[in-house]
Structures are given as C-alpha cells and as structure tokens.
Amino acid sequence: RLVPQPVMLGFVNGLAIVIFMAQFKSFQVPAAVGGGMVWMSPLQLYPMIGLIGVTMFIIQMLPHLTLAVPAPLAAIGVVTGVSKLIHVPIKTVGDIASISGTLPTFAIPAVPLNLHTLEIVFPYAVAVAAVGLTESLLTQQLVDDLTETRSSTHLECLGQGLANMVCGFLGAMGGCAMIGQTMVNMKSGGCGRLSGVATACSVLLFILCGSHIIEAVPIAALVGVMFMVVLSTFAWSSFRMVSRSPQSDFIILVLVTVLTIFTNLAVAVLTGVVASCLAFAWKSAKRVSATRFTQKDGFTGDKSKSKEPRGVYMLSGPLFFGSASRFRELLDPAKEPCDRVILDFLECRVWDTSGIEAIDFLAEKYKAAGKHLSLRHLSEDCRRLLHEAGESVEVNISEDPWYGVATDYDSALGQSPFSKWSPPHGEHFPIESSK
Hints:
Elements: H1 5-22, E1 28-30, E2 37-39, H2 42-65, H3 71-86, H4 93-96, H5 115-147, H6 153-169, H7 179-187, H8 193-208, H9 211-215, H10 219-233, H11 241-244, H12 247-262, H13 265-285, E3 289-295, E4 310-319, H14 324-330, E5 340-350, H15 353-368, E6 372-376, H16 380-385, H17 409-412
Parallel strand pairs: 4-5, 5-6
Antiparallel strand pairs: 1-2, 3-4
C-alpha cells in the first residue's frame, strides 16, 4: 500500500539491469594462462551472438504465428538443434556444471541449538527475509496489475515462509518470487498459479531424469531468453517521466534503480518509500496558505453581535508537522490592525499534534498582543486537544467538520473490532453512524 509508482518502476528497472549485467559472464571463458576469466575469442563470440539473435527473433515472432508452443521453449529447441548442425565451439550448460541430482533427504541442521547460534543466524535471516518478501510482494503487485486480479499478500508471505522453513530441513536454499521466470511464464500464457507449479515440477524432472538434455542446451539460447526478459521487464514508459512527471518522482525512480543495482531490493525499496514520503510531506507543507479580509458586520452565529471590524483569515491546506512552521509564519499578530481576529479552518485540516501545538502557539501570541482570537470550523477532536486556544473555538454543529486527530478512524466509523469512538457530549457523529 505504501509503495508509490516511481518506486515500483525503479524496482523493475533495477532488476532488469541486474539481469542484463548478469549475462556478461556468459561471454567469458577460463583463461589458458594465469587463471581467471577472459572474453571469448571471435571464433566463439560471433556464433554465440548469432544464436542469441536467432533465439530473440523466434521469441518475438512465434507468438504472432501460434500460441500452441511457448516461444522460449521453441527457441531453445531450435537453437540447440542448430548448434549441433553447425559444428562450431559453442559453450553449453554442461560446460559450466552438471545439473544431475537426486531427491533431497530430510535432516535436522547440525548446529548447536542455543542463543549464540541465533545471534549469528538472525541478522542474515532478517536480511534474506526482507529481500525475499520485498521481491515477492512487488512481483505479486506487478502480476496483479498485468492480469487485472487481486491476490492475498498475507497468503503469499505465509506460503513463502513455510516453504523456506521446509527447505531448511531438506538442504535447499531459501527462495522467493523470480520476476524473470514470472515474465517468461506470463509471456507464454501461463498466468495462473499452476504455471509456477509446472515450472518447479519440470525442473525436478530434468534434474532427476533429463539432465543430459539440459546440459546440451547452448548458453546462447538461455542468454537470448534472458535478454527478452530484460526487454519485457524494463519499464520503457519511465523515460516519459522526465518531462511528464514531477521532478521528485523521476529522482526517486533513478535512486531506487541505482540502489537495486548496487545494494539489494530491501534497501532500495525502503529508501524509495522514505524518499517518497519526505517528498510528499515537503509538497504538502507548501500548500498551507491564508487569505485575509476585513469583516465589518456581524456574522451568522455571532453571539456578541459586535459591529467591531474583524480580521478574518481563510486558511487552506493541511496543517501537520511539515507545515506547522509555515503556518506560524503566515500570521503576525503585531501587524494585525484589527483587535478581533478570526481564523477560519473550513478548508484547512489539522492532521496531528504538531498542528494542534501550532494553533496553541498562535493563540498565545495573539493573547500577548492584546488581540481577541476566534477559531471557526474546527472538529470536536481538535477542540478537545487545544489548551491555550480551546476557549477561542466557536462551535457550529451544522457546519463544523468531523474528523479525528488523536482517534482511531476505523473505530470511529465502526469498522474495527474495538469499541466505537464518539465525540464527547454527543455533539457530533459521522454520517456513517446513521446506518
């Protein structure tokens, strides 16, 4: 709920760049002298580039002809067959490592079960869980947007946690959602949860029975598939944000992208959310304003019936910790020509205790300057929280707004299992309570 669109775009762009950069290792081979890795010779590089191009071409064009066969699977099959016919040195999966294996066995981790072990494991467990949940939930949001569906984040987190706990007893690594595999499945027509299960079962079968088939696949075919994943994952529309979106949104997008590349997802997303919140608070703080006019006649609800001129300030914008300082600077009792002053909060909403304190601060200044201050259109909750300015509030039940500052909104609207909240003395009730 708190992940804004620039952070989401930065997340997918950063992952796309990370996936793209990870493919560069496929263009390297062990050095003949001195160890290490060196770039491929032209005899190996040119055929590999050609096969990558063929893979990308098939993935791009085959869906226009038929959807019966997943395009990535068809491309891998065609490129594997071509590589066997041209008889050129092409690096395959088997040249890197064997994927043959057996079923895992259940075993309890052979570590001391004490607090010292927990102190060692806990920081890494939190970091891994944070990164895994971040990628899974953001990938889930991306899939929900593409499929126009809504899935349960609670079930996703619970399922991922239980699966990773089971993996720990089977000698397997922890896992999370993979945006690359997800995009491949969706592009191939697998938009349901069964597609992920089918992928996992297929990998298991190949490891147990068909490792020789996978080991014969050229690395070029897999690189081509991943390049297509990069092209489909990267949010190319984000470039339009340079001229069509606020500058702060574009800066946050770039910030999250860079942090995703050089740190990890959890740090990148958390930093982006915090930066977005600060940018929003800064913009909102500048929206508070006041318009002054002089009122010479009485007004509806004026019990004093005084004809003395009043300085009326029509306030607008949110009053909270970010705008409290600006709010204090808007009004100067020393420069006010009228002895009676009215602050009208009809278009101004008080959000927190910083706003309450700002009103009390101004009330003290007007009192010290010998001015009579009146406050209009404040909610009952604001009136209860005011100290110095509480007596200056003019109550108009038919016009005063209803909102809480120090109350629970869900309880107030009857949407919480806790007891309902209502203003003191029964002066106001929300419209929803009439139900």
